[in-house]
Write a structure and sequence with these properties.
Blueprint (H helix, E strand, L loop, with lengths): L1 E7 L3 E7 L2 H13 L3 E7 L4 E5 L3 H11 L3 H4 L5 H7 L1
Antiparallel strand pairs: 1-2, 1-3, 3-4
């Protein structure tokens, strides 16, 4: 399973789970057509980021700067921790 991490300018970072590549592509198209910015795609099983946006590093730096305790307080399966770790 994969998880899309995207930014809703009104509500902040959000997550969408997808089960296969076809669903991933369809969900990415749907999210971008609604104006959301996709930050990255996380492979949940391996806890690795498999796709990054051009602004990925800026998002990771923003989260780390604004929420410095977030990485230490999250369990290893949390996508935000993976985002910060990269």
């Amino acid at each position: 399973m994969q998880q899309i991490i995207y930014l809703d300018s009104d509500l902040g970072y959000k997550f969408a789970d997808v089960k296969n590549h076809k669903n991933l592509v369809n969900k990415q198209v749907k999210l971008t057509s609604k104006g959301y910015h996709i930050v990255c795609v996380l492979d949940v099983d391996t806890q690795t980021i498999v796709e990054k946006s051009d602004s990925f590093s800026a998002h990771a730096a923003f989260i780390e700067k604004c929420y410095p305790n977030l990485a230490q307080s999250q369990v290893s399966m949390n996508p935000i921790k993976e985002l910060i770790a990269v």
